């Protein structure tokens, strides 16, 4: 969480220098959110109230720093990230993070943030690799295991039928 917070702070500074104030606001909110959720999770409390508060803060800050449709990308991207903090299933977190990454990638490109665009591309690649390694492969293994279990059941049933026929 520390590295994520440092990264978001760095991007807040970068967006400030680029004059992209919605990006600044979203990343400052992200820094605060990271710290709050680190405490909430450590205390094993429900993240739901925090998710709601940070969703409202995100939308409010987006409205206050509105710079046209480009701002909507940052607002949507950060909102998806906020909601991902309430999900414990890594597969669902990966899937929910994809729209966030795409929104931020477009925001970065339109906002001339080369470093941000590169980071989002790397993040999306990382999500794809994680999905393939943990979700896609596991699904294939489960199907293979299900197939071998049904073959075993069929073999056992066939043996029982053969005994009954004798």
């Amino acid at each position: 969480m520390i590295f994520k917070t440092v990264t978001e702070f760095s991007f807040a500074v970068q967006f400030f220098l680029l004059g992209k104030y919605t990006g600044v606001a979203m990343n400052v909110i992200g820094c605060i959110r990271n710290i709050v959720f680190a405490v909430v999770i450590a205390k094993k409390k429900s993240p739901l109230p925090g998710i709601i508060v940070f969703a409202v803060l995100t939308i409010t800050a987006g409205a206050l720093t509105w710079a046209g449709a480009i701002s909507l990308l940052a607002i949507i991207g950060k909102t998806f990230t906020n909601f991902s903090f309430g999900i414990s299933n890594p597969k669902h977190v990966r899937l929910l993070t994809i729209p966030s990454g795409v929104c931020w990638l477009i925001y970065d490109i339109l906002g001339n943030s080369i470093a941000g665009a590169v980071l989002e591309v790397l993040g999306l690649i990382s999500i794809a690799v994680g999905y393939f390694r943990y979700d896609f492969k596991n699904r294939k293994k489960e199907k293979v295991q299900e197939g071998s279990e049904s073959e075993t059941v069929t073999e056992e049933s066939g043996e029982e039928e053969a005994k009954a026929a004798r």
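Helices lie at 2-18, 21-42, 48-64, 69-84, 90-110, 114-165. Residues 152-166 have pLDDT under 50 and may be disordered.
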